[in-house]
Specification:
Layout: H1 3-6, E1 7-8, H2 14-34, H3 40-64, E2 66-70, E3 73-78, E4 84-89, E5 93-100, H4 102-107, E6 109-116, E7 125-132, H5 133-144, H6 150-153, E8 163-164, H7 167-175, H8 178-181, H9 183-197, H10 201-214, H11 219-244, E9 249-253, E10 256-261, E11 266-272, E12 278-283, H12 285-290, E13 293-298, E14 313-320, H13 322-332, E15 341-342, H14 348-369, H15 372-395, E16 397-400, E17 404-408, E18 413-418, E19 423-429, H16 432-436, E20 439-446, E21 452-459, H17 460-476
Antiparallel strand pairs: 1-2, 2-3, 3-4, 5-6, 5-11, 6-7, 8-9, 9-10, 10-11, 12-13, 12-18, 13-14, 15-16, 16-17, 17-18, 19-20, 20-21
Helix pairs in contact: 2-3, 7-11, 14-15
Length: 477
Amino acid sequence: MTGAAAEGRLHPLAAVLYGVRVIRNTVPLLLAGLVTDVPRPVLAVAIAAVLLAGVPYGLLSWWRFRYRVEAGRLVVDAGVLVRRNRVVPLERIRGVSLDEPVLHRVFGLVRARVEAAAAGDQKGELALAAVSRDQAERLRDAVLRAGDAPAATAAAAAPPPLAAMRPGRLALAGATSARFVLVPAAAAGGLLNFADDVGLDGLLRDGAGRVADRAPHSAVSIALAVAAAAVFVTLLAAAGSVIADWAFELRAEGPRLATVRGLLSRRRTTVDRRRVLGVEVCDSPVRRALGMAAIVAPVGGFGVSKDGDSAGRVRLLPLADADEIARVTAEVAPGDAPPLLPHPRSGLPRRVGRATVPPLAVAIGAAVLGWWWVAGLAALAAAAMVPVAFDRHRNLGHAAGRWLVLRSGSLARRHSRLDPGAIVATRVRSSPFQRRRGLCSVQVHLGLGAGSRTAIDMGEDQGRALLARLHPWMREG
């Protein structure tokens, strides 16, 4: 590894991007000034002050930023008023993400993000705002190949993808995922909050009132409107998935796993296999009916991202069929898993109670207040949750061997295959209701911000047997 490949600074065009960011930050100030009674000269002076102070500050930030890889460490020097020198051992780095937002792609630049071990928190992230593609790839190779064996570093440069997704599959993934289905509702809520902040809430209420007055009020028309809204939201979700995950590929690159996706903003996320703690298959009733599921991998020390990955988890495939699930599982967590052991039927009443008590309480409260339509809806919700509770109990299961296998959930079911050596602690919980039925729940905590997983409503003998299998692994780890 040469010195040229191991050190560098941001691309000169990063100064332009810093300036664009400063100008972009003045837009809310401009909008707020236009809809309020702030005098125009005062507004102009405020915006000019932000620009005059922000643009030189961005230039200095670019000038003072340096990074280098030396002696098994990543060293970053940055800061204008307060100088910062950050040193991260390479063995603490969990992954590297290379992003290409639209503006970066225009200039042929990449935004590099290095995930350092900080319990999955964003404070463990090192960001390089803009570097060339070659420079970003050299940095990625330098920090991730530090612990590779010599034979591994000689792997092929561009192996074929382990799995790839077509646009039709991506659209189906978005239409069946709450991640995209709930985006329109969240966007509407954000718009309403912004309108309230700038004083446009009254205008929106008047417009909504006029639309409501003109809309038909028959049951058929309301049902059609609801159906049309559902179709519209589903189409938006499908389009959002296609844009966010366009040309999604999962690549197995020797000692690393990489995902590549995105239409407007292209992103490549690379993680060290040694940081991958297992594999999880997540589905829902709709996806189960289609024979499909999403595949994610728990990764220690991986931070929160803005494109669907969450703290301690990396999406390997947004939607996969049975063959792809088997192939990815064999690649990420090879070996046979022991068969699942079902949990005692004595836990079924607890599942039913936890699913139906909240809506029944709402129904009773609404009936006392005379809100009969609310009480009816809540009662229907309670009845609908009964088969969900039965399905939740039926899906409970666990097994321990080379892999720790846990399964739970119904509307959102998760089947986890975890490395027992990644478990740093266990906790046994037993409520009074569980003790009466001879049940307990065993929670296993994974290290470095990867979260915890729980085997729910096990028999007490099952819990003791599981702990006896896990503790030797924990002592070895």
